[in-house]
Amino acid sequence: MDIKVSERLEGIGEYYFSQKLREIEELNKQGKKIINLGIGSPDLPPHPEVVKVLQEEAAKPNVHAYQSYKGSPVLRNAMAAFYKKWYQADVNPDMEVLPLIGSKEGIMHICMTYLNKGDEALIPNPGYPTYSSAVKLAGGTCKEYALKEENNWEPDFKALEEIDLSKVKLMWINYPEMPTGKQASKELFERIVAFGKKHNILICHDNPYSFILNEQPISILSAEGAKEVALELNSLSKASNMAGWRVGMMIGAKERIEEVLRFKSNMDSGMFLPVQLAAAKALSLDKEWYDQLNGIYSERRKLVHQLLDVLQCKYDKAQVGMFVWAKIPSSYKDGYELSDEVLYDKNVFITPGGIFGSNGNGYIRISLCAKKEVLEEALERVTA
Ligand SMILES: Cc1ncc(COP(=O)(O)O)c(C=O)c1O
């Protein structure tokens, strides 16, 4: 059949991981038993009470209908309460909260809501690859801004001011940053909010990692006047161990929520009510939940640090989030070379930093979503 894919898919490659996973599968078929330290999908279960709510609610006869596009009030209230409790942010549950089917879909929805052909969006390099795919799919153009170690992985505002910003409508930011593990300060958010106001750019902050190995979760809403110019995405995928459940949220001014809802309500028809009620339970968990989770991640991180020492990589111990980001020794051309060497010689897969953008070329990223025994085995293999 002679059918062409749409032009909007041109230049949107297959996600690096899906390609690499196929290669790993092939190697496994040859009996290699590859340890995959690439992907950030939590391996631990959600809190048992969360699963219990899902089970009990799903057994009821009257919970199976389509749900409101805006989400259940129970979930919206839980999201607003979560923002108050952890980020000290006042959010109106009826007007300033939008439950999402994962924050990845929110990235697409925001781009589809605001970008016309020719509009530009600022994208972090290195950063989560979905920002650039979503901008391109929506018809916009990506304008990368550099994040560099010597600049403490913060945007270089002087350089940003020097470029032509007249067509820039959105700026994607993500702190704690994936892949660099950099945490934002309130001052950094204030500078970004001021930058957005000055240039009339909608700041889109993606915040899924603020509870992982981090004692001070922070939201962009902590910056004065942020709601006038910023949206924030959050997610239950990482800190609630619910990646497969697909629950996220968008927080922002009433007008922005309504605008994004205009697009979103044409894409999906709400979320299964028992999932929403269980998500509300997850959002109400107290510090003990995050402490025990971080206890496990911090044990794992020690092993990852040892593994990186063996590979003679350098890393900052103050990183937060679900990965460790490390600079490779200068004997390697780039992270791809090191990653391939470790994959083919040691049967361990680690992510080359270059997939997150050219400024990640000299780095690799290791996920903490592997059990201690698996990391011990990886360490043994790499050391041998
Ligand atoms: C920076 C970043 N944002 C968003 C997501 C997507 O999260 P969700 O599962 O909520 O769609 C990820 C997942 O890997 C991520 O790393």
From TrEMBL:
Its EC number is 2.6.1.-. It comes from the Bacteria. Keywords: Aminotransferase, Transferase. The keyword Transferase applies. InterPro entries: Aminotransferase_I/II_large, LL-DAP_aminotransferase, NHTrfase_class1_PyrdxlP-BS, PyrdxlP-dep_Trfase, PyrdxlP-dep_Trfase_major, PyrdxlP-dep_Trfase_small. GO terms for molecular function: pyridoxal phosphate binding; transaminase activity. Residues 32-382 form the Aminotransferase class I/classII large domain. Its cofactor is pyridoxal 5'-phosphate. Pfam families: Aminotran_1_2. SUPFAM superfamilies: PLP-dependent transferases. Belongs to the class-I pyridoxal-phosphate-dependent aminotransferase family. This is Aminotransferase.
